[in-house]
Amino acid sequence: MTRAACKIVPFDFMTSPKFQIFLIRREIRTPAYFDRHLPMQKQTRQFFILLALFSAAVYLVYRTFFTLNLVTWYSSFVSISLLAAEMYGIFLMSLYFFQVWDTDEPPQQPIPEGVKVDVYIPTYNEDEHLLRGTIVAAKAMDFPHKTYVLDDGNRENIKALAEEIGVDYIARADNLHAKAGNLNNALDITEGELIVIFDADHVAKKNFITRIIGYFNDPKMAFVQTPHSFYNFDNFQATLNFKKNEYWEEGQLFYNVVQPGKNRWNGVSFCGSAAMFRRSALEEVGLIATETNTEDMHTGLRLHAAGYNSLFINEPLIIGQAATDVTTFNSQRVRWGEGNLSIMAHDNPLTIRGLTLPQRLCYMGSMLSWTTGVPKLVLYVTPILMLFTGVAPVRKFTSTLGVITLFYLFSTWGAVKAAGNGYGNIWAIEVTAMANFWTQIRSTWRALVKRAQQSFVVTSKRGRQSNSLIKQIMPHILLIVASLAAVFWALIRYFYGFTHDLLGLSIGSGLVLVHVLLAFDVLRRSLKGRDFRFSYRHPSDTVHVHYRGLNILDTEEPLVGQAAAVDINECGLGLTAFEKIPSGTKLDLLLQGGGN
To answer: Is 127 considered catalytic here?
Structure first.
C-alpha cells in the first residue's frame, strides 16, 4: 500500500458547509468523542469532600503535635518546611473543594430579539490558514451579528482575507496594551450591545450566540463564559489513548468542574475567549483591564466587584488548539501565572470593595493555584535529602503515622475523583503538577520581583515558542539525576552498615521513584518531534476516499481508486491507497465518512 499526501482539489474545507473539518462529529474525533464521564450524585460528591477535609484536619493536627523532628537545626528546618508545604497544599485543596461544592447547570433562557451583537477576533501574528477557519465559522453563526477581525499585526494579507470572507477589518497604529488594548480599541469604534470574543484559533459552532444570549435577559448579567476545548489531542498537557477512547488534559477539570462550581457563588472566571459580554458593563469598569497581562481574570474581577453577574455554560461551543509542546506550554503558563498573581497588586480580591465573601474565596483559589511550585518542590526534594543524609522529616515512622497518612491520602484521592465529575485523573493531575512546578516558581518570582517588566507574549500556534528545549526540561532532568543518586547512595549506606533504617529507606525510595516516573512522563512529552505544519492534522481512520486523476502521461487511462484517510486538515490529507499513485499525479478527491 502507498501512503501519499495530496492536495484536495474540489473541496475548500473552511467554506464547504458539508465538510467543515473542525466541527465534524463522526468523521474526525472531537472532544465529544471522548466524553464518557458520568458525574456522581451531588450528595455523594459532598460526602467525599467533607470526609477529605476531616481527614486533612486530623492529619495536620497529628503531624503538628506528634511528628516534628526538632532534634537539630537541620532536622527542624526540613521537618517544619515539609509541614508548611503540606499545610499550604491542604489550604489550596480546601479552596478548591469550596469552589466545586455544587456544579449544577443553569437552565437555558429564551432568545431575545433585536439585540446588536459584535464578534471580535483579535489577532497579532497567527497564520492566515488558522484565521480563515475562525473567521468563516464566526461569520456563519446563526444570529444577526457583525464580525470584526482585530489585527494588531496590521497585515495586508489578513485585511485581504477579511474582505474575501466579507467581515470587517480593524487595525491600529500601535500595539499598546497588547490584546487588551486591541479589544478596547474595537470597543471604542463599534456599537454592538453585546460583544463576543474569540481567540484567533477558536472555531465556533453555528449556535454559539443563540445558546448563550438568552442569559442576558438578566440586566445585571455582565458576561457568560463557555469552555475551551481542543482538537489537537496529542498536545503537551494531554493524556491520550485512541484505542480506549481516553483523553484527559488539565483544562477538562477546570471547565467541567471548577467553572460550573463557581456559578453557585457568582464567581465565574473570564478566560479570554469563547465568552459574551455586555458592553455597558465593560464601559462601567473602564473596558478591558490593561494593568496586567491576564486581562481576562482582571476584567472579570472588576465586573463582579461592580455588582454584575456571570455564568458559565458547560457546553463546548468552540474548538481550538492547546499548547503543542513544552516551550509553548511553559511560555503560556508563565504568562498566566505571572499575570494572575500580579492582579493582587492592583485589585486584591481580599480587599477590593464590592465582592461577596464567596467571590473573594473563588478568586483567591484561582490566583493562589499558581503558587504551588515551591510547595511541590519541597515535596519532591524532601525524600531525596532524607536518603542522602539519613535524617527523616518526622520524629519516627510509626504505625499510627502510617494509618493516619493513608487515611488522609485515600480520602483525598477519593474526594478528587468524586468531586471531579469523572475528570479527576489522579496520575494525570500529578504529571501536570510535575510539568508545572518550575514554571510556577518562575511566574511567582516574576510577579513578586519583576512585575514592572511584564510583557504579553502571544502563544505560538505553529512550531515551538523557543528553540532552547534543554532549558525547559533541565529542572526535571536534575530532579531525576538527584533522585536516582539518592537511592543509590542510600543503598550503599545500608549495605555497608552505616544505617539500619530499612523502613526509612523503603519509604524514601518509594516516594523518590514515584517522582522519577512523573518526571520521565514530562520528559517523554517534551522530547516528541516538532510539527511544522501551518494547521494541525486530525488523525482519521473513518474517512473513505474515492480518487480520480490522470497519470503523468496524458495518453494513459484515468487513474481511479479508493483509499483510507490517515490524517486530514484544511490544507491537505495523508492517505493510504491500495495501488501505487505516481508522484506528481493530480487527483480529484471525494471524501465520505459516516455514510455522508
So the answer is: no
Residue of 118, 152, 201, 347 marked catalytic: 152
* Cβ neighbours of residue 188 closer than 8 Å, sequence gap 6 or more: none
d(CA 48, CA 419): 8
Rounded Cα gap, residues 249 and 526, in angstroms: 15
DSSP character string of 242-291: TTTTEEEEHHHHIIIIIHHHHHTTT-PPP-SSSEEEEHHHHHHTTSS--S
Please name the residue ranges forming H helices in 166-198.
178-189
* β-strands 586-593, 543-550 pairing: antiparallel
Let me know: does 321 contact 201? Beta carbons within 8 Å. Answer: yes
The C-alpha atoms of residue 426 and residue 518 are separated, in whole angstroms, by 12
Helix axis angle, 73-99 relative to 42-66, nearest 10°? 160
Burial 203-214 (b: 16+ CB within 10 A, else e): bbbbebbebbbb
Which of 296, 325, 347, 521 is labelled catalytic? 296
Please check whether residue 350 is in contact with residue 261, taking contact to mean a CB–CB distance below 8 angstroms. no
CB 509 within 8 A of CB 304: no
Q: Read off the pLDDT of residues 292-340 as tens digits, 9 standing for 90 and up.
A: 888 999 999 999 999 999 999 999 999 888 877 788 888 888 888 888 8
Active site annotation includes 296: yes
Mean pLDDT of 116-135: 91
Closest by CA position to 272, among listed 200, 338, 370? 200
What are the residues facing 311 on neighbouring strands?
224
C-alpha dihedral sign at 228, 233, 239, 243: positive
List the one residue out of 189, 207, 116, 126 whose CA is nearest residue 161. 126
| The three cell numbers locating residue 405 | 497518612
3-state helix, strand, coil in the chain (%, to 5): 50, 15, 35
Cβ proximity of 145 and 115 under 8 Å: no
C-alpha cell at 20: 467543515
| Cell digits of residue 513 | 521513584
Helix, strand counts (H, E) of the chain = 18, 18
pLDDT of 227: 93
Pull the grid cell for residue 188: 471604542
Q: What is the DSSP letter of 496?
A: T
Half-sphere CA count of 104, side-chain side, radius 13 A: 10
- Assess whether pLDDT exceeds 80 at residue 125: yes
Dihedrals phi, psi of 477, to nearest 5 degrees: -65, -45
Q: Is the dihedral of CA 458, 459, 462, 468 positive or negative?
A: positive
Report the relative pairing of strands 275-278 and 194-197 from DSSP bridges. antiparallel
> pLDDT by residue (tens digit) across 379-431?
999 999 999 998 999 998 899 999 999 999 999 999 999 998 888 889 989 99
Q: What is the pLDDT of residue 468?
A: 73
3-state secondary structure of 206: coil
Taking only Cα atoms into account, the Rg of the chain, rounded to an integer number of angstroms, comes to 27
CA-closest candidate to residue 363, choices 440, 424, 452, 302:
302
Residue 557, judged by CB atoms within 10 A of its CB (0-12, 13-18, 19+), counts as exposed
Distance of CA 412 to the CA centre of its chain: 23
